Amino acid sequence: MNPPEILKSGVSGPAKVQSPEANRPRHLLSIAELSSDDIIRLLDSARSFAEVSKRPVKKVPALRGKTIVNMFIEPSTRTRMSFELAAKRLSADVVSFTPSGSSLSKGESLKDTAKTIVAMGVDAVVIRHSSAGAPKLLTEWVDCSVINAGDGMHEHPTQALLDLFTMRERLGRLEGLKVAIVGDIDHSRVARSNILALNKVGARVLLVAPRSLLPDRVEEMGVEVTGSIDEALRWCDVLYLLRIQLERVSESRFPSLREYTLQYGLTQTRWSRLKRKPLVMHPGPMNRGVEIASVVADEVEPVITGQVAAGVAVRMAVLYELLGGST
Ligand code: CP
User: Fold this and answer.
1) Ligand 1 atom closest to Cα of 283?
2) Are residues 303 and 161 in the same domain?
3) Catalytic residue among 26, 78, 115, 270
4) How far is the CA of 204 from the centre of ligand 1 (A)?
5) pLDDT tens, residue by residue, 126-184
6) Do 161 and 302 sit in the same domain of this protein?
């Protein structure tokens, strides 16, 4: 029996024959798997999508008919909301899964939960999880695209893409750019993804942290290291501040938060002394008074909210590339 007209897909013309490769879901799990050309293509595409968010009607039909599930098993404001807005601006249907109130809280495994959700006809799952490697595991369980929205201390690829987008839009280039990343590098998936991405596009990276907050084998990461934020401030074009992740780090890694601020914080004194001020960036959420003085945070706020706005455009580019765009 033929399906009623209303249930037909809306695709007209003869069916196209596609290779099995073309039908396989595509994922974004880490920056490590992208080439510099991939990164630049996504940033170029994000620039086009940024324009959509400035229109009176902030919507294009690019992913009409696609269904995306946001599965945030760890807290998030920026990433969760911007993925949701990105999906909606591309006209996809988007559903948010929240662990509390779900059967995860009754003991259902992540695997069974994911399979249950995807059985309802889902094209992509965006997942944040406290365990490194959870998005990769998901790709083995479900037959749809998987996007890593931050997995433990491993990677946060879309954060790095939006950061590079912001640097390129504000400073006009990435190659040769001098970027100092300050703070808790060891626990930071944001730092890991940014270091990989910046290295790929030819930027230089200087890490600024006490030894106790640097990862093992840091010398193999293609970066330089210093213990002096003042030296970094004299050198860099971009000062990228990280949050001390109090949920992942015990204060025993440094004497006290006050001590950390004095040694590594962007204090008002340091900021006001600078003749040439770098672009100050932060992935959020900020700990005002710890890694950045509150008055400095207010001054650089347009850049930091610009990062958030870039997040929507970059995530539109990622969703479009995986679900509807180029191969
Ligand atoms: N930068 C970032 O990942 O922020 P959220 O935790 O609010 O998503």
Assistant:
1) 1
2) yes
3) 78
4) 24
5) 999 999 999 999 999 999 999 999 999 999 999 999 999 999 999 999 999 999 999 99
6) yes
Q: In what order do the strands lie in the sheet with 178-182?
A: 224-226, 204-208, 178-182, 238-241, 279-281
CB of 77 shorter than 6 A to ligand 1: yes
The whole-angstrom separation of Cα 170 and Cα 172 is 6
Contacts with 139 (C-beta within 8 Å, 6 or more apart), sequence order: 25, 27, 29, 146
Pairing of strands 238-241, 178-182: parallel
Domain membership flag for residue 113: yes
Q: If you take atom 1 of ligand 1, which residue's CA is the nearest one?
A: 283
Domain holding 15, by residue range, is 7-156+310-322
Output the pTM of the full model: 0.91
Pocket test for ligand 1, best of 77, 84, 85, 163 (most atoms within 8 A of CB): 77
Catalytic residue chosen out of the listed positions 79, 113, 158, 166: 79
Examine the domain organization and report whether 143 and 51 are in the same domain. yes
How many domains would you assign to the chain? 2
293: domain CATH number? Answer: 3.40.50.1370
